[in-house]
Structure formats: structure tokens, C-alpha cells
Amino acid sequence: MTGRRGRRTLAAAAVTAALGQLSLPAPPALAADRVDTSCRRPPQQGEPLPDALPGRNLTDRLGLAQAWDLAEGEGITVGVVDSGVDDRHPELSGAVREGAEVVTVRTKKGYRIQRPKPPALDCEGHGTAVAGLIAARRGGEARITGVAPASRVEPVRVVGGVENAPAEALAAAIDRVVDSGVQVLNLSFALPVDRAPVRKAVERAVAQDVVVVAAAGNEGTSGKKMYPAAYDGVLAVGAVQPTGQPMKESNSGGWVDLAGYGQDEVVLAAGGSGYRRDKGTSFAAPQVSGAAALVRSRFPRLSARQVRERLVDAAAPVGGGTNERTGAGVVDPFGALTHLAGDGGRAGAQQDRQAAARPGAIPVQAVPRPRPLLSPTGATALAWSGGLLLTVLLAVLGAPAVRRAAARRWRPAPVGGGPRGAGADRAGADRFRTDRARPPVAPALDGLTGGVSRTRRGRTDPTHRTHRTS
Fold first, then answer.
1. Which of 170-174, 284-288, 309-313, 336-340 has the least mean pLDDT?
2. How far apart are CA 255 and CA 224, in angstroms?
3. Within 13 Å and on the Cβ side, how many CA atoms surround 15?
């Protein structure tokens, strides 16, 4: 027994010694720190713009030239949680802050946030296009200027793609960009399920008075909610064609708030230069984010809720009213900047009316309602006074006629005038009776034609002879 146990002990010791000499791989948590965040394939290269773009460009369709007379987004930062932003593009010169990267790692936390290494990467080109629609500068290509060209973009790159990231990593990206102090947050992605970490991160952003804008998604579904667009306090954005018709791929439902242009839009390309065409609600959402930046720049004291209400109330209706495909309608930046909010039917209207504009701007005031010249009491008094005055005038003017009629004992007045008094009245009556006794005057027609009536010849012509027949 003793020898058998001893041999087992020696064998176990030998195995232990051998395992100790092996070079085992590091735990997954340590290996994950060496994740390569560079692009596995270069982003899609852009092309030069043609001399003439088909149809009207976004600047004309949204009426941005008029909106920029009021605000350009000065002092506003828009957060973009996406595939990254390539800040080497000349249209984005000075528009992009450093931002951060969220890397999915195999640790208990599940992600890691780090500062991006230069140059800033956007492997998909999606985030660069979104950033350009928000903040492309006016000094570059005029047809590609962003909606809020004086605003800045705070990018948070989700390494590996938003669609592949776990919910915890997406929530961390939202928290990171909100903590950086943005006033507007653009989320150009749509998830088919409600993920608790993402929902709570969005709730934190809304609670911190951030205007959250999200794309409705491009599956063409009807009624099915997409997230984060369908969360409370988020502006859900659908897409329309250049003609204003709803884009068929745009998801619809009662949770859609408004729309932007999303069919074959010209956007910035990653890689440092060039342009490309793309479509989807992902590119309609940044138009709304840019409009929100304009409103927050002009009216810095408005709350996020008030900004959302302005954008929805000022939208241009599609098809004559609100619908599930485009919500209240296409975003109207100039309309939002000049919208006369506070009609008494929406909560917070008083605060909206009292919101101060940015320094140097003239706040838009409500058009005063016309006031009546007289109050109801004054109008009644004036009517009674007029009636009494008219009665007095009739009495004064009618007194002589009453006296004359009484003097005639209320008989008709003589025709032709004459001396006044009782004698004149009697003479007039005698003349009236005499005129009635006179025979009628011969017809005037006989005098005009030179003929003489038979009656007249028989009575007045002495040479007249009556001939009888036997």
C-alpha cells in the first residue's frame, strides 16, 4: 500500500513540475489589451464633385441661407456616436474635437475607453458623412455646407461598428460624449430591440438637458419601434426624397417625430478628401441635429424639451398633416428659429416666450393682437347716445311741418303753393274742385300731327256741316 501511494505521489509531483515549465497563454483580459483598432480595409474613397449637381442642394432645400442670417451654431457642440470622424477632410477643418474611442474587450466590464491615436480613423466613412451634414464649414464647397457650420462635433468612435457592439459599450459611448459637455447628441443607428443599458444612457442624456436625435432606421417596417429613436425624450427622424415624398425604406410609426432628406445625399467621404452619395435615415438625423444646434445657439436659455417642441411645431407638413412616416413633417431650420412658440396650448409656453436670445440677437416677439377701439360697454353707450341724438334731430326738424298740418286741420296741403293761412287753404280747395269739373284737354298727338278731332270740329268749327245719308 505504502509503495503504491508513494509512486502516485511522485507521479503527481512530476506532472506539476512539467506544467510549471510550460508557457501558458495570458488570460483573455490581458490579451484583449492588444486589440488592433486600425482599419482592416481602407474606407471608401471619395470623388470630386461634378460641376452641376442634379436637383437642388441641401442648402437650398432647407433654406439655410436665411437661417444663417440668424444663427450658425456658434458655441454649440454636437456629439456623434458613430464609426468615427476623419477630421483631415478640408470641409471639417477646425470643426472636430479630439473625442474618444470605445473598444470592445474581453473583460468583466466588456469595453475600454481610450483616446484615439492620430490620424483620426473612420473605417466605414459613416461618421464622417454625419459630421459633415452637421458642421461642414462655409469656407469650403458651398453646396456641401453643414446645417450648423459654426458648431463643433465631439466624436466617439465605436471600434468594430455600432451594430456589432454590445449594449454596455454603446451605453459607455453615450455617457462619454454626454460627459464631455455636448448640447446636442446625434445617434444615427437603429436597434430592433430595447436594450436596457442603452435606454438608461439615453435617459441620463435627456436628464442632463441634451437634445437627443436618433435615426428611425431603414428596414421599411411599419409600427415596429426602433431604438433609441422610440425612447421618450428623443427626436425620431424619418427620411424623405428630394421631392418631399417619404422614402420607402424609412421605418414608420406613431413614434416618428419629423423627417429630413435622406435619398441620394451628397456627403463627405473619409480618407481625407472627396465626396460620395449615400442614403438613409442616418443622414436625415444629422440635419435635425444641426437645426437643433442653430436653435440652441440663438436661444441658449431654451431647455432641450423646448427645442424639441420648436423643431416639431415648425416642421413643414408632408401630405397636409402629421403622419406615421414623416411625423410632423420635414425639418425647417429657419422656421424653428422664427417660430412663435407659446400659444397657450403647450406646457412650458411661458418659459419659451421669456427665453433670451444669444448676445446681439433680437428675440422674435409674438405679433400683438388687434384691440377694439371701444369696449363692449363703451359701444353700448355710444349706440344709445346716437339713438337719442337722432330722436332730438327728428323732433327739431319735424316741428314746423307738424304745426302747418295742424293749422290745415290735418288736410292735404294745396298743390302749387300760394299764400299761407286758412283762406289760402279754402282757395286751394275751390281750385281743386274746379279743375276736376273741366273737360279733358284734347290729346297732344292731334296737335303734333296737324289733325283735329271730330269732337272738336263738331263743337268749335263754325263751318262744319253734318252730312246724313238716306
1. 336-340
2. 9
3. 5
Annotated catalytic residues are 82, 126, 282
Nearest to 130 by CA among 75, 176, 84, 98: 84
* Residue 162 is assigned to a structural domain of this protein: yes
178 has pLDDT over 90 = yes
What residues have CB less than 8 Å from 408, skipping those under 6 apart? 425
Better-predicted residue by pLDDT, 174 or 104: 174
CB-count exposure of residue 308 (10 Å: 0-12, 13-18, 19+): buried
Note whether 56 and 155 are same-domain residues.
yes
pLDDT on residue 462? 47
Q: Assign residue 339 the CATH number of its domain.
A: 3.40.50.200
**402 and 255 within one domain:** no
- Same domain (yes/no): 266, 415: no
> Beta partners for 187?
214
Distance CA 463, CA 459 (A): 11
Instruction: Tell me what pLDDT residue 169 has.
Output: 96
Q: Is the C-alpha dihedral spanning 414, 415, 421, 427 positive or negative?
A: negative
290 and 419 co-located in one domain: no
Residue 421: give the domain boundaries. 378-439
370 belongs to a structural domain: no
The alpha-carbon radius of gyration of the chain (Å, integer) is: 47
Nearest alpha carbon to residue 237 among 185, 175, 194: 185
Cα 188 from Cα 307, distance rounded (Å): 19
* Number of structural domains in the chain: 2
pTM of the model: 0.68
Taking residues 283-300, what's their average pLDDT?
98
Nearest to 147 by CA among 216, 84, 61: 61
